[in-house]
């Protein structure tokens, strides 16, 4: 029986966490008679999770990403487990691990923009951290036996950055709608507080461009509200300052850490989802909005065009006036989009199936 490891240390996080929770959820439903999976979890997740599939085993690792412990301790643990194949699901991985592995590279955004917590540091510290990040990602991309990206856009970006030599080992596999949101019931209590609103769903890192959306919304008819739904962190507080400075507290509301039931309500009842990002690897909120048939107004970036084609209102994310104009045009014309015809492309279940095929094909070549 072949042993396959999956790095699930970010299981409880947003973004990569959604990817992991769905990959493991659908993997559990598979008949894995020839594979034994080791799922590497941080202590909190290790204590809370249990797997019914006997071919999925949880392993406790107390080594956070972007730490020396990850580089040394996590590598030692993986060597001790004698894996036939490892799947690193995030760009932060132990470069001392030299055995066979697959890597998922979710996006090239950190190479193109200041993003994440490191962007709050002073310039010297940020540059040092960014140098380490670039070295680690270079090692991962060049050493991986196979690379998975969530879109063709990311695949093309990686080839542009690292060269044509890596093109044959990259597979673009679309993600889908989080199974947890599919089974969640709408929090109808929120209808007492919110009507006539647009939504933004996601974190508030600088590349998400939420400040431009706020400035654009200042120009929108005051009978509409903008609800910002995301995590409670340093960047959320910066967004609150921006709202405060522009005296838009009545029209723009930031709701921190919404539940899945809250999200179902907002998707089902919003005028539209607005997503002003400069760069994305995929765009889970767009696919969730499409699932609930919520109209989408978003940046005219390549990845969104790949996902939605012409089934959304697009704007120039660098131009506040254009963002405002497109929102106003939407209010006036109320365009209708039919997302049924594209939703068949996006499925975490299919993603898991294709990922499992990659594991098996690599192991069959041994």
Textual characterization of the structure:
There is one protein chain. The chain is an alpha/beta fold. The protein folds into two domains: 2-176 and 347-364, Glycogen Phosphorylase B (Rossmann fold); 186-343, Glycogen Phosphorylase B (Rossmann fold, 3-Layer(aba) Sandwich), CATH 3.40.50. Helix content is 42%, strand content 16%. The protein contains 15 helices and 13 strands. It has helices at 16-27, 43-48, 68-81, 109-112, 123-143, 152-162, 179-182, 210-217, 234-245, 260-269, 284-291, 302-308, 320-333, 340-343, 348-364; strands spanning 2-7, 35-41, 56-60, 85-88, 101-104, 146-149, 170-172, 197-201, 225-230, 252-256, 273-275, 296-299, 313-315. A seven-stranded parallel β-sheet has the order 3-2-1-4-5-6-7, with helices on both faces. A three-stranded parallel β-sheet has the order 8-9-10, sandwiched between helices. Helix 12 links the parallel strand 12 and strand 13 (313-315). Helix 1 (16-27) packs across helix 15 and helix 8 crosses helix 13. The longest helix is centred in the middle third of the chain and has 21 residues, at 123-143. It is globular, with a radius of gyration of 21 Å. The chain starts with a strand and ends with a helix. The mean pLDDT is 95.
